[in-house]
């Protein structure tokens, strides 16, 4: 197989930790580009020890560093980002990392002539959906600097496609969950909060009426979609990556009560929520990537609870 090397920004993070083993199994070598503000050093150390992965510890805000490190790479996965909650608290930092960072990576990828760039976009580009399931051609209404940068990132990819023939796919991830996720992850933090409380014998505390829903997609399934996007024949489109199933928070609470095995009822706490319902239309993921989620939410949540030991 010809030398295939992935330049992987944010490669020290949660989703990357599940994606990198799939890449090395398929014969890619991986150059992680991560400033390690949220990276998992132990996990990255294990990857580097295989001899197939290297770490460049640097910041996507520095275009020169990106341009230098991307040299010799045939593929790009761009994940480096600051999270949605940090983007609300500090829009300046968010715009800097997410907008300038996106541009540095896309411009460098175009200049290097890489074969494919996969960008981690987000379901949050839709804002409050008008209908379910959410389709890629639905109107976009990003509400925070993080979401705005994801949408702008998709637009910028279009620019480098037109100007330099850059081949890209933007994956609009829905609510990713699974082992190794940080406790404070914005949407999915609810899973960890519920599990922590249940393990202490306390009831889950539900924001609002528990009617708000999410489309929980397991990180193992999602990582497969990332690799498919790197290799698909069709390109230059956004693609939803979810399951198509909206799970209400009240349902999630019940699932986790069963998974942990405690005899409690959820408690309710009135509060406004940013996006109330989510479910992905995944027709395009099926057609273009030949991808199908395989882990039902009940099974994924049970496995997550078991991974806590
Ligand atoms: N987890 C989800 O539910 C979800 C949903 C939608 C989209 N996404 C997107 O998927 C991607 C990966 O998410 P994740 O959950 O693995 O996130 P994560 O926070 O675990 O990983 C992000 C990585 O980026 C690195 N990073 C941050 N700022 C950087 C900078 N300035 N320069 C270089 N590296 C920097 C961090 O150190 C970290 O290792 C992100 O782009 C995220 O926006 C995630």
UniProtKB/TrEMBL annotation:
Q: Which Gene3D superfamilies match?
A: NAD(P)-binding Rossmann-like Domain
> What Pfam families does the record point to?
Epimerase
Highest taxon in the source lineage: Bacteria
Annotated InterPro entries: Epimerase_deHydtase, NAD(P)-bd_dom_sf
Residue intervals of the NAD-dependent epimerase/dehydratase domain: 8-242
Q: Which family is this sequence assigned to?
A: Belongs to the NAD(P)-dependent epimerase/dehydratase family.
- What PANTHER family does the record tag this protein with? DTDP-D-GLUCOSE 4,6-DEHYDRATASE-RELATED (PTHR43000)
Protein name per Swiss-Prot or TrEMBL:
NAD-dependent epimerase/dehydratase family protein
Tell me what organism the protein belongs to: Amycolatopsis acididurans
